[in-house]
TrEMBL record:
<dbReference type="InterPro" id="IPR036388">
    <property type="entry name" value="WH-like_DNA-bd_sf"/>
</dbReference>
<dbReference type="InterPro" id="IPR000792">
    <property type="entry name" value="Tscrpt_reg_LuxR_C"/>
</dbReference>
<feature type="domain" description="Response regulatory">
    <location>
        <begin position="3"/>
        <end position="122"/>
    </location>
</feature>
<dbReference type="Pfam" id="PF00072">
    <property type="entry name" value="Response_reg"/>
</dbReference>
<dbReference type="GO" id="GO:0006355">
    <property type="term" value="P:regulation of DNA-templated transcription"/>
</dbReference>
<dbReference type="InterPro" id="IPR001789">
    <property type="entry name" value="Sig_transdc_resp-reg_receiver"/>
</dbReference>
<dbReference type="GO" id="GO:0003677">
    <property type="term" value="F:DNA binding"/>
</dbReference>
<dbReference type="InterPro" id="IPR039420">
    <property type="entry name" value="WalR-like"/>
</dbReference>
<protein>
    <submittedName>
        <fullName>DNA-binding response regulator</fullName>
    </submittedName>
</protein>
<dbReference type="InterPro" id="IPR011006">
    <property type="entry name" value="CheY-like_superfamily"/>
</dbReference>
<dbReference type="InterPro" id="IPR016032">
    <property type="entry name" value="Sig_transdc_resp-reg_C-effctor"/>
</dbReference>
<dbReference type="InterPro" id="IPR058245">
    <property type="entry name" value="NreC/VraR/RcsB-like_REC"/>
</dbReference>
<dbReference type="GO" id="GO:0000160">
    <property type="term" value="P:phosphorelay signal transduction system"/>
</dbReference>
<feature type="domain" description="HTH luxR-type">
    <location>
        <begin position="147"/>
        <end position="212"/>
    </location>
</feature>
<feature type="modified residue" description="4-aspartylphosphate">
    <location>
        <position position="54"/>
    </location>
</feature>
<keyword id="KW-0597">Phosphoprotein</keyword>
<dbReference type="Pfam" id="PF00196">
    <property type="entry name" value="GerE"/>
</dbReference>
């Protein structure tokens, strides 16, 4: 038997999940919590194997999301956490998985139908993502990898110029600093942007920021 806890600040969501879990004889519902305070109290007296937890609690004074995940992982390291979210962005999913979340599920009927499968999957050591979220995450990772590949294609001079552009320096200032002509600097900037698939300085800066450069 797998002991399951639920935490969400919308009672209708809790009731819906309770009804779905009740159809699976291998799952035992230990508690349903409507706030982070209630959740932590329930876990203290009634630990579970898997927690289905809302990613964002509206108007809750305690930290939710990734901060809550860190707290849960620290206090209950053996417990598997599956986040629930109506608006899960690929960056959020990726960060949560890196911090130890066992899965992420959208708040829609098609994903909720597979909740028993998700609980059993993470209980056996797997990471669970429904098709809709896994496709979005893979698409995001593909874009990042593509840009990393593009970054590797930059020449040393193009990379230096691109970094200085991202630091807010003008073409003329870079030319003076590197002792090159403004035309040469401009050409190297254009070449770098073309290889990275961006069309303006804002997009260029965002790539360098996302890739930690």
């Amino acid at each position: 038997m797998i002991r399951v806890g639920i935490a969400d600040d919308y009672p209708v969501v809790l009731r819906g999940i309770e009804a779905i879990l009740a159809t699976c004889p291998d799952l035992v519902l230990a508690f349903s919590a409507e706030s982070i305070t209630q959740l932590m109290s329930c876990l203290e007296r009634d630990p579970v194997d898997v927690l289905l937890c809302d990613y964002a609690f509206d108007d809750d004074p305690q930290a939710d999301g990734l901060d809550l995940l860190k707290r849960l992982r620290r206090q209950h390291p053996a417990m598997k956490v599956i986040f629930l979210s109506a608006h899960a962005q690929p960056q959020i999913i990726s960060s949560a998985l890196e911090l130890g979340a066992a899965g992420f599920i959208g708040k829609n009927r098609s994903d909720f139908v597979n909740l028993p499968q998700a609980v059993c999957s993470v209980h056996h050591g797997h990471v669970y993502l429904p098709q809709s979220l896994s496709s979005a995450l893979l698409g995001s990772l593909f874009n990042v990898n593509a840009r990393q590949t593009g970054l590797a294609q930059l020449s040393e001079r193009e990379l230096v110029v691109a970094r200085m552009i991202c630091q807010g320096m003008s073409i003329s200032a870079i030319a003076e600093r590197l002792n090159r002509s403004p035309k040469t600097i401009s050409n190297q900037k254009v070449a770098a942007m073309k290889k990275l698939g961006v069309s303006n300085d804002v997009e260029l800066s965002r790539i360098f920021q996302n890739l930690g450069h």
